[in-house]
Amino acid sequence: MNDKLPISCFIIAQNEADRITKTIESVKDLVNEIIVIDSGSTDGTQEVAENLGCRVLYNKWNGFGPQKRFGEDCAKNKWLLNLDADEYLSNDLQIEIRDLFSKNLESNFYSMEVIPIYPNWKRPRWFSAHHLCVRLYNIDFGRFSDSEVHDSVETNLNRVIKLNNPILHKSVRSFTHLIKKEDDYIKMQIDSLKKKNKLILFLRLIFEFPLSFIKYYFIRRHFTGALTGLLTALILAFFRWKRIYLFFKKLK
Fold it and tell me: What pairs with residue 138 in β-bridges?
């Protein structure tokens, strides 16, 4: 049961000393290589990772896709597991992956739900929305796209099997951190709006906030998160609107 699997787990990080330990501990008994790709931490993230037995490499930040492709290129195994430094495998997912490799693998791509957990909450909210992502895969058959903003594994239309258990995602430390994170993210997205129809974008400037609030509060079910969910939905909706506002402001 203690044998480690021929999987390289790679983690991109910057200033994650307070969170990356849980990420690493969730895989250290499962995989035989852990690589942390650091883009210039100043809080000791590198030392924390090294002390936990990881190989730590520096790579200048050029966006999500390029950073993850760098991690892929540094891995010694063909089978790769990707985690962000604010994510960790649930105990059931660790068991499921180990069981998966004890049999004949049926695919080269495995997806899993990534379920967020609010700051200061110990578990996900009821009926939490989630992202379904390919995070365990064989690099001989596909790899991360090179998009600076959107990071996803290109499966080249190969079969993807969904695992039953989730990755848990402590995406923000506080509301202040959520605001900063969203502000940084929308600034990266502004250039991608150039390809959009400007008339449609102008209409979105009017309706983006209320429609985004409905999306986050009701469709993504932040209403199950009580006051924390309400504030989260308001912040996310505001930054969806601000992204379009900054685009038009930049045109002046």
Answer: 79
Dist CA 174 CA 57 (whole Å): 28
Evaluate whether 91 touches 74 at the Cβ level (below 8 Å). no
Q: What is the pLDDT confidence band of residue 191, given thresholds at 50, 70 and 90? A: confident
Rounded distance, CA 153 to CA 148, Å? 13
**Residues constituting the chain:** 252
Is the per-residue pLDDT at 183 higher than 90?
yes
Q: Per DSSP, what are the bridge partners of residue 132?
A: 113
Query: In one letter, which amino acid is 26?
Result: S
Cα 184 from Cα 60, distance rounded (Å): 17
Name all domains of the chain by residue range, CATH numbers in brackets.
5-169 (3.90.550.10), 175-251 (no CATH)
Distances (CA, A) of 113 to 3, 134, 147, 207, 208: 26, 9, 21, 30, 27
- Whose tokens are 């969170």? That residue is 19
CB burial readout 71-89, b (16+ within 10 A) else e: bbeebebebbbbbbbbbbb
pTM for the whole structure? 0.86
